[in-house]
Every structure is written in C-alpha cells, then in structure tokens.
Write a structure and sequence with these properties.
InterPro entries: Integrase_recombinase_N, SAM-like_dom. It holds the Pfam family Phage_int_SAM_5. The protein is mainly alpha-helical. The chain has one domain. Helix content is 64%, strand content 0%. The chain is built from three helices and no strands. The chain is globular and about 35 Å long.
Length: 77
C-alpha cells in the first residue's frame, strides 16, 4: 500500500514536470499527450529499468478511473 502511494506521488511529480503545470484540464489529456508523457518518462535521465513502465501503469490507472467517473468518454491512454 505505501509503495503504491509513493509510486502515485512520484508519477504525479513527473507528470507535472512534463506538463509544466500543477493544473491539467481534462481536455488537455489527449492520446498525443499520453504518448508524449510516456516518451518523456522513457527518456528521462532519472528514470531507468522498469520505473518508466511502472509510472505509466499508474498514470493509466488514474485515466481508467477518470473514464469510470465519466471525466472522459473514452480513454485517451
């Protein structure tokens, strides 16, 4: 449980770095944005091994929950 909380927090930190903002409107989260975020993590100098994949998986879980909460009609991820 603590590992998941830490992973979500770290993923959020990198998402904010990629988006260059603390606020992200749902309309800004497009398929291209999601692909760009994954590329950003894959090429980030502080991330290696499975970490970019793990962070992407956490991000995708948040997107899937947003779809269930009807913030998105379909998943942009």
């Amino acid at each position: 449980m603590k590992k998941d909380v830490r992973m979500f927090g770290d993923s959020l930190k990198y998402l904010k770095e990629y988006a260059q903002t603390d606020y992200l409107a749902t309309k800004a989260v497009t398929e291209q944005f999601c692909k760009g975020f994954r590329e950003f993590m894959d090429n980030h100098p502080n991330l290696n091994g499975e970490t970019p994949y793990d962070f992407s998986a956490k991000f995708k879980k948040v997107i899937e929950q947003a779809v269930r909460d009807k913030l998105f009609i379909v998943s942009p991820a």
